[in-house]
Amino acid sequence: ANAVSAGMRDNPAKPGEIGIQGRTAPTGATVQSPDPVVHASTVSEAHGSAKTGEEQPVLGANALAASLDRVRADDSDQALTSNQGVPVSDNQNSLKAGLRGPTAMEDFLLREKITHFDHERIPERVVHARGSAAHGYFECYKALTELTCAAPFAEDGKRTPVFARFSTVAGGAGSADTVRDVRGFAVKFYTDEGNWDLVGNNIPVFFIQDAMKFPDLVHALKPEPHFGMPQASSAHDTFWDFVSLMPESTHMLLWQMSDRAIPRSYRMMQGFGVHTFRLVNADGASVFCKFHWTPKAGTHSLIWDEAVKIGGADPDYHRRDLWEAIEAGAAPEWELSLQVFSEDEADGMPFDILDPTKIVPEELVPLIPVGRMVLNRNPDNFFAETEQVAFCTAHIVPGIDFTNDPLLQGRIHSYLDTQISRLGGANFHELPINSPLRAVHNNQRDGMHRQTLNRGRVAYEPNSLGGGCPFQAGAAGFKSFPQPVDGDKIRAKPEKFADHYSQARLFWQSQTLTEQLHIVNAFRFELTRVQTPSVRQRVVSLLVNVDPMLAQQVADGLGFDVPEAAPVLVDGQPEYSASPALSLTAYPGETGIATRRVALLVADGVDGAMVTQVYEHLLQQGAVPRLVGQKLGAITCSAGKPFQVEITLSAAPSALYDAVVIPDGEQATTLLAADPLVAEFVRDQYRHCKPLLAAGSATEVIDKAELPDVLPNGDEDFSLAVGEAGQLPELLQQFAEALAGQRELGREAL
Ligand code: HDE
């Protein structure tokens, strides 16, 4: 291959990527990039160091795998070298004057190694420090040329390589994945016409309406500066002090206190572009647009108690989940939908479409599905890809444009700016993960760590000495939508921005009763952690304007009477009717029980035939069964060969599984029923509203844990599949149906 020189090989652990097969899309249409703008010089059009005339990376489908090849390194069969390529004979001992003597200053190998180590760290992101990412592609269903000339939407079935990073916002890079927080949902599209970054969140609104307030918001949210606590949590005084004085955050607070903020998996959450954007077609006509990602696996969340327990048992829970699903071939998928509306329609809406604290309800503007994103390849190297990737709202391509949303306008500045310090200079666009597939040609030069070998004497434009190259692309280049602007220069905002509560109410009223209960509990939890009584009261005074019942329930938990409502600044707030799409129950998903983790509790004397039957049944449907025992090693079965326990109850507690099966077996039941860890495991499964299956004697384990067999409202608990060993097929079917759907939240007494 081109620049894959001796010593730099494809990763044998990823055989799908070796050679040409790995760079060819497995199915569906693929589209080649247009010829790059070519000029007379001999500068390589290839991505990076390949010389003209050598084999060029294949652009188009999975093109990114090819462009990253030039930097992909594998050490198999290689001798150790220094950074200068000098073979190293001894990597254990520094060079000393005598066996017990001082280390020699000349030990360049020791010094090089330690010096590099000393500088291994870069600053973490100021927000969204903790994240996980994957490669994949976006596939457009149908050409959208009427709406936009953006490259990813140019042809039916066109595929564009993407790299997506999901993140929490508040915590440091080493913080737990399952904290209550907004999740970042950032997608870099490596389009034929440069990179387009859709830098969104899993919540469609934001806390503030103007970028001017962002540093204050983040200072209030981050650990308090005097003692550096709490980590990755908004449950402290400064955050609630700030938002209680910022009524525009009320709508977002309801989302943040909802189960959206504790997703079950990155694969099971929606993504939103948040701001209103513009689409522009080849004739220059433009419409407004909101971007929505909907997960094929459905929207699923954790229960708060479960999230807390996972935080201890496996702080990497979401990172591991994404990695393992992709390694297992269960590539997560999202559908991209657009809400498209005209300027006139926007003017008629009861809110300002430039206000990022508002959604455009689906009842007002329906969602149009336009394509899907599939994430099917894990990064080779966390630092080089997930950490060094630089998303930026300013990265747009012809066919997409900004609006005047004052939050978006501030973001356009912030990302490049912060990346200059985080990634050490102005050339981070040359990092392999950041560089576009379309070759870069401009007169920007030099700076720290410059890699491109720009040839020739000309680094200015206009020029005659370089034949006028690189020349302006003219009509083929990016043109800003010529939106007319007028008005006085002013620090203020439109009147409609002052309606802070009507959409918060819409969200509240669109939740199911259990979702509402979770919101109330989250407010109570966070405000209980707040120490200052007046801050607690001020938050509840905002909630009075959303719904007096909500305020009442929160105030009850905090032990005070409902305070007076916060002042409402607008007359006649718009009325919305509930929007079912705002409930997490609206998207149960289409992937059945695939990727769901199921514990089979086993001990000596378990019915081996039943274990095999359940295990295989789950595997066939793509679920992830695990034999969980009291200790590692072989267990004997009442029938069949012994099994090896895969993990222990203490190493992988209940919260890490989506469901539990307790197979039949007298002796095993006696052992399990006597173990307090088993009782805790089973109770947690129940309490976290997960499906349980117990067959034959194993029902005793359920009895021992004293689980109610009907729901608090007297209905049958469909997620509790308990019965005779002979009923296993029916029990399994009931269990799988329960596992594929939403959790049995009816177990939570209202
Ligand atoms: Fe960000 N945001 N943000 N943000 N944001 C960053 O850029 C900023 C906002 C979002 O996986 C930073 O490279 C300002 C909204 C994501 O690498 C920084 C404002 C939304 C990520 C920054 C906002 C986001 C970031 C920190 C208000 C949802 C992680 C490191 C004007 C639509 C991207 C970095 C990744 C990261 C600034 C508000 C999403 C400081 C000034 C609204 C997903 O530049």
From TrEMBL:
Q: Entry's Pfam families? A: Catalase (PF00199), Catalase-rel (PF06628), Catalase_C (PF18011)
Its EC number(s): 1.11.1.6
Q: Where is the Catalase core domain?
A: 81-469
- Supply the alphabetized keyword list: Heme, Hydrogen peroxide, Iron, Metal-binding, Oxidoreductase, Peroxidase
The highest taxon in the source lineage is Bacteria
| InterPro entries assigned | Catalase, Catalase_AS, Catalase_clade2, Catalase_clade2_helical, Catalase_core, Catalase_immune_responsive, Catalase_large_C, Catalase_sf
Cite the record's Polar residues compositional bias ranges.
78-95
- GO MF term set: catalase activity
Region of interest called Disordered, as start-end residue ranges on this chain: 6-58, 74-98
Names of the cofactor(s): heme
Q: What SMART domains does the record tag this protein with? A: Catalase
Q: Which reaction does it catalyse?
A: 2 H2O2 = O2 + 2 H2O
The free-text function statement in the UniProt record for this protein reads: Decomposes hydrogen peroxide into water and oxygen; serves to protect cells from the toxic effects of hydrogen peroxide.
Q: Which family does it belong to?
A: Belongs to the catalase family.
| Name this protein carries in UniProt | Catalase
- Give the source species: Herbaspirillum robiniae
User: Highest lineage ranks of the organism?
Assistant: Bacteria, Pseudomonadati, Pseudomonadota, Betaproteobacteria, Burkholderiales
